[in-house]
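Predict the 3D structure for this chain.
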Amino acid sequence: MDMRIEKRDAFCVSGYYMETSEETLERDCALLREKYEGKLRAISPNLYFVAWMSADNKMIYQLSVETPGETPEGMNRVEVPAGRFAVGTVPKGANILATWHEFFATVEASLDVAIDVEYPIHFEYFDENGNCELWSPIVAGE
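Done. Predicted structure below.
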């Protein structure tokens, strides 16, 4: 997996979310894509899966598009704070969840950084060709 570090300004995404768990994550994300991908790609060819933990420690995943202006009706808006990120490219045909596990197991040693466990959001970015990148925050001083 190719890895790099990138700085990114704050940005907003809007889309549709659901509570999930690691056991049902792949199925739940597939359902979100099946239900909303066409509607979201009509707004933008680039998709985001943003993930965070709720106050009661449930995983929340939201399939989104970047929305610099108004939030489209019926969608949930999330601001992704500015930060520095470790970015990993998911190899074509690879399982994304398995790639996240590999990413977290190797990123700190590969890039000589520390993951920022206080940062609230991790995300996946899908370009118009379906290429996927994993974005995880790193400690600012790194």
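Residues 20 and 27 are 9 Å apart (CA to CA).
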